[in-house]
Amino acid sequence: MKSVSEIPGIKHTTAGNFFLMAGPCAIESREMAMEIAEKLYNLCERLEIPLIFKGSFRKANRSRIDSFTGIGDVAALEILAEVRDRYQVPVVTDIHESHEAELAARYVDVLQIPAFLFRQTELLVAAARTGKWINIKKGQFAAAGAMKHAMQKCIDSGNDRVILTDRGNSFGYTDLVVDFRNIPEMQSFGVPVVMDVTHSLQQPNQESGVTGGKPELIGTIARAAIAVGADGLFIETHPRPAEAKSDGANMLQLDKLEPLLQQLLRIRKAILPL
């Protein structure tokens, strides 16, 4: 299995802990990004958790045309690069069109392929050709086995630095459900597998045009994912989720992250092989 220890700048990979991809849904401002990054950095340093800071430089997939999409592509990417340089941690952002791959790759260490787009061959090839690590999210409509083909497109394009992420499966029109069988099945492909905790608790396609969520179940999904052996967790977090400009309904309040991580580390320790 490829190891995330090969991601430039990642720390604490010999501690035996899961890795964490965390940050705000979108880069709303420099001040907000730095506030979250400092908290995450200090927390993960203390707990010896490998951290990849996450933030979308642009939100392309929005329910309504008046929804927040970003502060400007280069401005947001420069903030992500500043987080990387200040805290010496890798950063990840998602891309939606093939021409964005080269641009984003100048600033970040990991390119993320959104769940709705995991079948887009041109997007996967463009991401792979940058040489960056690629985190591919499993489509809400797809079985775990389908991700082998998405992964293979990157490998066939000369890049085997792939992470696969589960984010639940569509359950009716406005809900998602997590099938934890997906984690070991995708691990069998020889790549690290992540559970996207917060997006798997979304309630999409609401009549209001604003996605809902069930953040009270974040701990439930995270504990189950670690218990079945997920290599990493993806958690969007914000100091004040109700004020977040994107996905606030399913984000974890920042000050609730530490007790959750401490609990998850105890579960991780309990399941490690002797």
Describe the structure.
There is one protein chain. The protein is of the alpha/beta class and 274 residues long. The protein has a single domain, classed as Aldolase class I (TIM Barrel). The protein has 8 helices and 13 strands. The strands form 3 sheets. The chain has an 8-stranded parallel barrel with strand order 1-2-3-4-5-6-9-12, surrounded by 6 helices. A two-stranded antiparallel sheet has the order 7-8. A two-stranded antiparallel sheet has the order 10-11. Helix 1 packs parallel to helix 2, helix 4 crosses helix 5 and helix 7 runs parallel beside helix 8. It is globular and about 45 Å long. The two termini are 20 Å apart.
Strands, helices and their partners?
Blueprint: E1 19-23, H1 30-47, E2 51-54, H2 73-87, E3 91-94, H3 98-105, E4 110-113, H4 121-129, E5 133-137, H5 147-156, E6 162-166, E7 169-170, E8 176-177, H6 182-187, E9 193-196, E10 202-203, E11 212-213, H7 218-227, E12 232-238, E13 252-253, H8 257-271
Parallel strand pairs: 1-2, 1-12, 2-3, 3-4, 4-5, 5-6, 6-9, 9-12, 12-13
Antiparallel strand pairs: 7-8, 10-11
Helix pairs in contact: 1-2, 3-4, 4-5, 7-8
Provide a quick synopsis of the model.
With 274 residues, this protein is of the alpha/beta class.
CATH hierarchy class name: Alpha Beta
Strand composition percent: 15-25%
Number of domains: 1
Mean pLDDT reading:
93
Helix % is: 25-40%
Q: What is the third-level CATH name, the topology?
A: TIM Barrel
Terminal residue distance: 20 Å
Q: Which segments are poorly predicted (pLDDT under 50) over 5 or more consecutive residues? A: none
SS summary, helix count: 8
The count of strands amounts to: 13
SSE order in H/E notation? EHEHEHEHEHEEEHEEEHEEH
Instruction: Please give the radius of gyration in angstroms.
Output: 17 Å
**Order of strands in the sheet with most strands:** 1-2-3-4-5-6-9-12
Q: How does the overall form come out from the CA principal axes?
A: globular
